[in-house]
């Protein structure tokens, strides 16, 4: 692998798609956050893995960014008619993926092996890996105490005030071995932190033992893309969470959160006035990805930013 991309859901998947279109598939490794994973209706649900997988396979719902475009909802309609829980929507086609994932995990297969097989069957060429095959789960402390992430995110629609986040199981979980091996590979040319929520998508990956050290020690530059444009997040509760956690909700605020971990930072033109507040090497560009061409263009911008950093180091 020459490029490793760390990704959450919708925003990360968009850039992952762009990278997949400008790089040979064997040169791209995508690491998906699994702290959003949970069990629902007895099924193992992996929202971020599935969003990345569906996006790369050309199956994602273009309006929502998650779920499948060709979805039907007979299961949810029937579930509602018999009094079942319907706060988390599972489409009929999506449901088949969760059923098969659950069956295989109970038979002893790892999440990595299952994800690889699903991607192969759906025609996803780049390698997609979960951050770990061990269970790590995000918990959110609100005014009413600790709640599971999906309760906060979906059931309560991010309305509770966030006071603290915890990644249960992170201290004992093992980072996916091929992930760590890729970071140690001297052929690595870039680590890309996709424009995902830093708190609930990227920091869970960074919380795994050895990951921060591996990123610090890797010879390739680490380049992050700001998930905020003009003080707003394109999707999700990033700005709301930053404000509630006492942080400045801005592109520069996210850069400070990443700190010395990043060598480069891609910022939208709308935030060019913040360049002086960012210690990493800043590259300006269009980071709003509304079209496929936008995704590809941002991917090229990120890779060029990494190449400039590499050339600077050599000099």
Helix and strand topology:
Elements: E1 3-7, H1 10-22, E2 28-32, E3 38-40, E4 43-45, H2 47-57, H3 74-81, H4 92-106, H5 111-122, E5 127-130, E6 137-142, E7 145-148, H6 149-155, E8 164-168, H7 177-184, E9 190-193, H8 198-206, H9 211-217, E10 222-225, E11 228-229, E12 232-233, H10 238-244, H11 251-258, E13 264-268, E14 281-285, H12 292-314
Parallel strand pairs: 1-2, 1-9, 2-5, 9-10, 10-13, 13-14
Antiparallel strand pairs: 3-4, 6-7, 6-8, 11-12
Helix pairs in contact: 1-2, 1-12, 2-5, 4-5
What is shown here, in short?
With 315 residues, the chain is of the alpha/beta class. The chain has helices spanning 10-22, 47-57, 74-81, 92-106, 111-122, 149-155, 177-184, 198-206, 211-217, 238-244, 251-258, 292-314, and strands at 3-7, 28-32, 38-40, 43-45, 127-130, 137-142, 145-148, 164-168, 190-193, 222-225, 228-229, 232-233, 264-268, 281-285.
What letter string, H or E per element, gives the SSE order? EHEEEHHHHEEEHEHEHHEEEHHEEH
> Strand order, biggest sheet?
5-2-1-9-10-13-14
Rounded mean pLDDT is 96
Head-to-tail CA distance between termini:
24 Å
Radius of gyration: 19 Å
Low-confidence stretches: none
Largest sheet: 7 strands, parallel
Overall shape: globular
Q: What portion of the residues fall into strands of 2 or more residues?
A: 15-25%
Helical content class:
40-55%
- By helix and strand content, what is the structural category? alpha/beta
What does this structure look like?
The protein is α/β, with parallel strands linked by helices. It has twelve helices and 14 strands. The strands form four sheets. Strands 5-2-1-9-10-13-14 form a seven-stranded parallel beta sheet, sandwiched between helices. Helix 1 (10-22) crosses helix 12 (292-314).
């Amino acid at each position: 692998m020459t490029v490793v991309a760390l990704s959450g859901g919708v925003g990360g998947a968009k850039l992952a798609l762009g990278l997949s279109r400008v790089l040979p598939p064997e040169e791209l490794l995508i690491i998906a956050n699994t702290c959003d994973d949970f069990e629902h209706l007895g099924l193992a649900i992996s929202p971020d893995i599935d969003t990345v997988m569906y996006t790369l396979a050309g199956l994602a719902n273009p309006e929502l960014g998650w779920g499948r475009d060709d979805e039907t909802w007979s299961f949810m309609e029937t579930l509602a008619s018999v009094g079942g829980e319907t706060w988390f929507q599972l489409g009929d086609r999506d449901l088949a993926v969760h059923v098969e994932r659950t069956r295989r995990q109970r038979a002893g297969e790892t999440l990595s092996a299952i994800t690889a097989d699903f991607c192969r069957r759906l025609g996803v060429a780049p390698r997609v890996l979960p951050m770990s095959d061990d269970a790590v789960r995000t918990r959110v402390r609100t005014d009413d105490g600790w709640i599971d992430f999906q309760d906060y995110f979906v059931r309560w629609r991010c309305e509770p005030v966030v006071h603290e986040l915890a990644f249960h199981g992170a201290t004992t979980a093992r980072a996916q071995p091929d992930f760590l091996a890729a970071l140690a590979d001297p052929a690595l040319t870039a680590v890309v932190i996709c424009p995902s929520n830093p708190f609930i998508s990227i920091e869970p990956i960074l919380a795994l033992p050895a990951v921060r050290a591996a990123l610090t020690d890797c010879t390739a530059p680490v380049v992050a893309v700001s998930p905020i444009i003009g003080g707003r997040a394109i999707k999700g509760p990033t700005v709301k969470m930053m404000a509630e956690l006492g942080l400045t909700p801005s592109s520069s605020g996210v850069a400070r959160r990443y700190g010395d971990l990043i060598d480069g930072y891609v910022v939208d033109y709308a935030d060019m006035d913040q360049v002086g507040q960012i210690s990493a090497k800043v590259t300006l560009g269009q980071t709003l990805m509304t079209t496929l061409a936008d995704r590809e263009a941002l991917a090229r911008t990120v890779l060029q930013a990494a190449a400039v950093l590499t050339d600077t180091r050599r000099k």
